[in-house]
Design goal:
The chain is α+β, with helices and mostly antiparallel strands. It is built from 8 helices and 4 strands; from the N terminus they run H-H-H-H-H-H-E-H-E-E-E-H. The chain folds into 2 domains: 101 residues, Peroxidase, domain 1; 73 residues. A 4-stranded mixed β-sheet has the order 2-1-3-4.
Length: 186
C-alpha cells in the first residue's frame, strides 16, 4: 500500500478519535508542530524512512523530541504508528491530517503567488474566487511574492492551479510564435 494511502487512513483514524474524545483542537496543534518539525528537519525525515534504524530507536527519538510538547493522545498515536512499522508514513500523516481537518471544518486552503503584495481589496477578490471554485465559505489564503511573474497571479486551490501571470502569457505567446508555419527559418 502506498505511503500516501497509509497516511490518509492513519490521519482519518486520529481525526475521528480526537473528535470523539473532544481533543481535536489540541491534536490539530500537535500535528501542526509535528509537520513543521519534519519540514524543517531533513535528518529526522531521513531517519524515519531508514529501514536499518530499529523501531524502538525511532520511537525513543520521537519521544525525546515531542515528549511533553504534545498531548497524550498524539504521543500514543506516534507510538502505535512506530510499533506498526509505519514510520515512513509519518512524513505524510501531518499534511493529510491537516487536509482532512480543513475538510471537516469546511475550510479551503489556497495559495496565491503574485509579483507584488496584495492589497486588501485584491485579497478579498481572490478569497471570493476561491469560495466560488471550492464551494466552501471559509478560506485560508497563503500569500507568496515572486517578482519573476512580472504581473498577474498564480492561484492554487487543492490540486487545481490558475496561472494568470504575465510570465505565463509571454510563454504562451512565444510558443504560438514558434509554431507559426509562415515564420522565416534562419
Amino acid at each position: 500500500m502506498s505511503e500516501q494511502r497509509v497516511a490518509s487512513r492513519y490521519a482519518k483514524s486520529l481525526l475521528d478519535l480526537a473528535e470523539e474524545r473532544g481533543t481535536l483542537p489540541q491534536v490539530k496543534e500537535d500535528m501542526d508542530l509535528f509537520s513543521k518539525t519534519l519540514e524543517e528537519n531533513r535528518d529526522l525525515r531521513l531517519l524515519l524512512r531508514n529501514p536499518i534504524v530499529k523501531h524502538d530507536k525511532k520511537l525513543a527519538i520521537l519521544r525525546a523530541i515531542f515528549g511533553g510538547k504534545v498531548s497524550e493522545l498524539t504521543e500514543k498515536f506516534l507510538t502505535i504508528v512506530t510499533q506498526k512499522n509505519r514510520e515512513s508514513a509519518l512524513e505524510f500523516i501531518g499534511s493529510e491530517f491537516r487536509s482532512q481537518y480543513n475538510l471537516l471544518r469546511g475550510v479551503q486552503v489556497a495559495e496565491v503567488i503574485t509579483a507584488t503584495p496584495l492589497t486588501p481589496a485584491l485579497r478579498a477578490e481572490v478569497e471570493q474566487l476561491v469560495r466560488q471554485q471550492a464551494g466552501l465559505q471559509q478560506v485560508e489564503l497563503t500569500e507568496k511574492i515572486d517578482a519573476s511573474l512580472i504581473g498577474g497571479f498564480v492561484l492554487r486551490v487543492g490540486d487545481r492551479q490558475i496561472d494568470d501571470s504575465v510570465r505565463h502569457r509571454l510563454r504562451k505567446l512565444r510558443s504560438e510564435f514558434s509554431k507559426n508555419p509562415y515564420q522565416p527559418q534562419l
